[in-house]
Write a structure and sequence with these properties.
Protein name: D-2-hydroxyglutarate dehydrogenase
Oligomer: single chain
Strand content: 15-25%
Strand order of the largest sheet: 13-10-12-11-15-16-14
Largest sheet: 7 strands, antiparallel
Subunit structure: Homodimer.
Helix content: 25-40%
Shape: globular
Radius of gyration: 23 Å
InterPro entries: FAD-bd_oxidored_4_C, FAD-bd_PCMH, FAD-bd_PCMH-like_sf, FAD-bd_PCMH_sub2, FAD-linked_Oxase-like_C, FAD-oxidored/transferase_4, Oxid_FAD_bind_N, Vanillyl_alc_oxidase_C-sub2
Cofactor: FAD
CATH architecture of the largest domain: 2-Layer Sandwich
Number of domains: 4
GO molecular function: (R)-2-hydroxyglutarate dehydrogenase activity; FAD binding; metal ion binding
Length: 460
Amino acid sequence: MTDARLAELIGRLPNLRLLTEPGDLEHYGRDWTRRWTPAPLAIALPASIDEVQAIIRWANAHHVAIVPSGGRTGLSGGAVAAQGELVLSLERMNRVMAFDAVDRTLTVQSGITLQAVHDASHAHGLIYPVDFAARGSCSIGGNIATNAGGIRVIRYGNTREWIAGLKVIAGNGELLELNRGLIKNSSGYDLRQLMIGSEGTLGVVVEATLRLTDPPPPSQVMLLALPDMDALMQVFAVFREKLSLQAFEFFTDVAQRHVLAHGAQRAIDGDYPYYVVTEFDAIDEQAMEAALAAFEHCVEQGWASDGVIAQSEAQAAALWRLREGITESLAPHRPYKNDISVRIAAVPAFLQEMQELLAREYPHFDVVWFGHIGDGNLHINVLKPDALADAEFISQCEHVTKLLAETLHRHGGSISAEHGIGLVKRAYLESTRSAAEIALMRGVRQVFDPNGVLNPGKLF
């Protein structure tokens, strides 16, 4: 607190909660990547829009970089503060502001968790359909900053489909009210959509109006064991044609081994190279018969080796844990992560190339991959051998990531599907975006944040 800049900030905002203890700096200065040593100047925890606006204006006046911070569950280093930045944590701004039954919208502060949004929506008989395993700790502001997807994109799409309006403090300190919940609005550029996925480099989201929808019909969960990689897309094609899918997720035998060791329960006897957990509408007996027929067809074709249908909500949750528990089970191994996507039609050819690349370049590494096969999003986790130094491990992984980015470029894919670019992937942005696009993106950033105080070093 002896820093003159912080003293001046407290002078402007005497009621601002400001943390400088070493434990707080470490906790708030990093995200789930754990690759950078956190070294923020301090942690600011504003309680209002006015305080956020004042902090950003102070940052411009004193040329202090700001790292916006939500639940810090990101995997790309987007919330890392390692260069003396002020961490702007929105965790105290976590309230539900309003519910509109006619518009079917929920207005919330950006620090609210995804789980709290789900709970508030359910209280009104509706749902906010974006969902993934980190729901209890990630924040809506962070979801918006990375255009989060999750396990139900196949049915509902990404975060951007469900944002009706935003309040944002731009990098120049101006408060912007974007779209105001309108369904139709053809009055020029949609700056709301520009903010979604911008990783805190254009403005700080302080409030969001979320669109809600009806709960899905009764559903059923099925786990399938598959004999080989080629069967993945065959099974997906059959199930998508015959059923109304809510989710279609896959993981490998290596992933299952880790999640079982972490406490999940085995659901299918024996070991198979690939597994699929799918959830589909099951409104009547006819729908269940269609599901069984689809499964039997896949078995007859040799695309499925075994399967199980949940007989209760508890068993459905246990089947889902086999997929949703993977990331948590891998965390102690400090994995190097790739989060990539291709068009669904390009998945078979890309998977073949990717599999060959990973086998060739990681012959002695444990590689765990899983993902949302129904929307072309794959997560690759490379586990560090205990005897290998961190720097050497990351160097080897980055070499492979460069090759992977080149493969993605050939298939028209993206180096980041849903976790953003941050610090981890900025060297590979050119594999996804053209030079002209990147130049325009830099120009947009300059307009919204002329002094470059918001999340510098991230994205570019």
